Amino acid sequence: MTLAPDLTLLKAGNLRGALLMAMAMAGFSIEDMALKYVTAHVPVGEVLILFGLGGLTVFAVLTRQRRERIFHPILFTRVMAIRALFEMMGRVFFTLSLALTALSTTSAILQATPLVVAAAGVLIFREKVSPLRWALIALGFVGVLMVLRPGLSGFTPLSILAVLGMIGFAGRDLATRAAPPILSYAQLGVTGFAALIPSGAILLLWRGAWVMPSLVDLAFLSVAVVVGVIAYTGITMAMRMGELSVVTPFRYVRLLFAMILGALVFGERPDAMELAGGAVIVGAGVLLMISSRRRA
To answer: What residue segments make up the domains of the chain, in order of their start?
Structure first.
């Protein structure tokens, strides 16, 4: 008598989790669009500082409302220091890629992050990977090469920035898996945005001086902070609400939103090779998740 209600709740949780994940990816795409717009007028280092301060303030307030410590002692451990370094790497190179390359290209390369995490998990966490999963990981990297097109006329060296950003985010995700689970999403948000401030300062010293942002730029930055915090919260809730095998594949709709926004706001037109490469990356990632579910 109790089996049917449990299945209904499970399906409802998966549906809500999938919707939250899709909404979070739409939010991250809007955040990327807003940051790309601002970096056309304001130095990237300055954008990182302002974006970091905004997100840090919001998550600090959320942490206090939850009656948690803003800077937990665990944040100063070796694992969290490594996570912060990878966070800085990912954010700096990803934002540079947003500023200097197409939004759709940057987002397509970013979709390979789960593939890198899966491959690195074998070396770091000694996870067992079947030949099929290795083949899917390799197929995903082929998709990245299709987007980059090294050695061909469509190759843009600046696309390497997105690859470096993707590696940084993959390292952050791996470090998060190794971090103690006692930290909440709000506390992790504090550390993530706090890492942007020193990295932005270093980048600002290296290239570019401080520029007074216009009211329009500040408005776009505010949108990026608010939408980014909502999206970060949404993805956390989605991962805890539904089954990972059902919810996680919806991460890839971020590429669809990015292509739509890139076309509408910046007039981007991805060519056939880039579209095919993005499809290969997404397909390999989804199949990798399905194979992981079946193995479990």
So the answer is: 39-295
